[in-house]
UniProtKB/TrEMBL annotation:
<dbReference type="GO" id="GO:0016887">
    <property type="term" value="F:ATP hydrolysis activity"/>
</dbReference>
<protein>
    <submittedName>
        <fullName>ABC transporter</fullName>
    </submittedName>
</protein>
<dbReference type="GO" id="GO:0005524">
    <property type="term" value="F:ATP binding"/>
</dbReference>
<keyword id="KW-0547">Nucleotide-binding</keyword>
<dbReference type="InterPro" id="IPR027417">
    <property type="entry name" value="P-loop_NTPase"/>
</dbReference>
<dbReference type="Pfam" id="PF00005">
    <property type="entry name" value="ABC_tran"/>
</dbReference>
<keyword id="KW-0067">ATP-binding</keyword>
<feature type="domain" description="ABC transporter">
    <location>
        <begin position="2"/>
        <end position="240"/>
    </location>
</feature>
<dbReference type="InterPro" id="IPR003593">
    <property type="entry name" value="AAA+_ATPase"/>
</dbReference>
<dbReference type="InterPro" id="IPR003439">
    <property type="entry name" value="ABC_transporter-like_ATP-bd"/>
</dbReference>
<keyword id="KW-0813">Transport</keyword>
<dbReference type="InterPro" id="IPR050166">
    <property type="entry name" value="ABC_transporter_ATP-bind"/>
</dbReference>
Length: 243
């Protein structure tokens, strides 16, 4: 559903002086329909660059080689929805209106987006807050609203870039437990999710498969699939991060 093959991305130096920054080096990764994949790696290893490549969001001056495969909507646009680390809520719009912004921009008819937004607000624990302004919501509520906005775009591929990175550790753990219970991909099996995170426990809680990247330039150095009740061998995963 989602793939990069031998993807190399380099950013030319600012003002043309010095060396280019090679963010990704011949990276190959596939995400299947119905799969939730977490990409773990140290800061600056190219995780966001990978998501941006899938989302068609790389800056123009980036030098790109290799193959980037993403599903297309019927009108030819990329079928991806991107959620950045910062919630990006519009302060002049109430929660319900904020929830629908992405869907309307993606061409979802308002009459379809509105009832779905109302239903999802309840499912995302925001029932009763439809008319709240963003500044009246807690950090966790804002992130849930931002995630809801991403889901409402009805795009089959969700690209989540540290969606809970701005939250305190306690709220973050709660959000992860909640998100695991919502089951983003299991709802219809038609969706795929790629999550970028620094947080090992977040990856363990949420993902069907964890991919570990090296320091820059980012390559995949370890890959592990969840299985059974215990899901992952946490110690082995931690050891792979230190390797
Ligand atoms: N638009 C850009 N122009 C120049 N260099 C860039 C650009 N975007 C990213 N880079 C560089 O590419 C490398 C990878 O950046 P990227 O944001 O993908 O890393 P990351 O793994 O997501 O980091 P973090 O976890 O800290 O968010 C970094 O060295 C960064 O400085």
């Amino acid at each position: 559903m989602l793939a990069v093959r031998d993807l190399t991305v380099a950013f030319p130096p600012a003002r043309g002086k010095g060396d280019a920054t090679v963010a990704l080096d011949r990276l190959t990764l596939e995400v299947s329909r119905g799969e939730f994949v977490a990409v773990l790696g140290p800061s600056g290893c190219g995780k966001s660059t990978l998501l941006r490549a899938w989302g068609g969001l790389l800056v123009e001056r980036a030098r790109v080689s290799g193959e980037i495969a993403v599903p297309r909507a019927s009108d030819g646009t990329r079928a991806t929805a991107w959620m950045p680390q910062r919630d990006g809520l519009l302060p002049w719009r109430r929660a319900l209106s904020n929830a629908m912004v992405g869907a309307i921009a993606a061409g979802v008819p308002r009459e379809r987006a509105l009832p779905r937004a109302r239903a999802l607000l309840v499912e995302f624990g925001l029932g009763g807050f439809e008319d709240a302004w963003p500044h009246e919501l807690s950090g966790g509520m804002r992130q849930r609203l931002a995630l809801l906005r991403t889901c409402l775009t009805e795009r089959p591929v969700l690209l989540l870039d540290e969606p809970f990175g701005a939250l305190d550790p306690v709220t973050r753990r709660r959000m992860n437990a909640w998100l695991a219970s919502v089951g983003l991909v299991s709802q219809d099996g038609e969706r795929a999710v790629a999550l970028v995170t620094h947080d090992v426990d977040e990856a363990i809680t949420l993902a069907d498969r964890i991919v570990v990247m090296s320091g820059r330039p980012g390559r995949i150095v370890h890959e592990v699939q969840a299985h059974g009740e215990s899901r992952y061998d946490r110690e082995a995963l931690l050891a792979s991060l230190d390797a």
